[in-house]
Amino acid sequence: MWTKLQNTPRKKIPRTIAVIDPDTCFGIACSICQAACPVEDCIVEEQDADGRWVCAVLIDKCIGCGLCVTVGNPTAPGKRDFGCPADYDAIDMVAYTEVVEVMEAQLDAEELAEAEPVTTF
Length: 121
Hints:
two-stranded antiparallel ribbon
């Protein structure tokens, strides 16, 4: 039986976190990244813009271990047994600060798009 080793909040913010490219992820058909991840509920399935079920990393849970990354990917950590299949190579480790900046910019853009236009008289 597979047991997740970490089910408590992370102790510090990681330097890098896993980012999954939905265009190359096979999602529920694969899920190897979910099996490799030691953190409970860190990698989840969600629908992408095209309605396909793909894997996504929860930014507040990722500890930056890189165990989900393809073996041989330049952003991958040291030696391990498996990760995202090489023919998918859908996961990269990206600087945490860079991911936060991109996410905040996306949220700001969404908020602006949802805001009601102001009319002046």
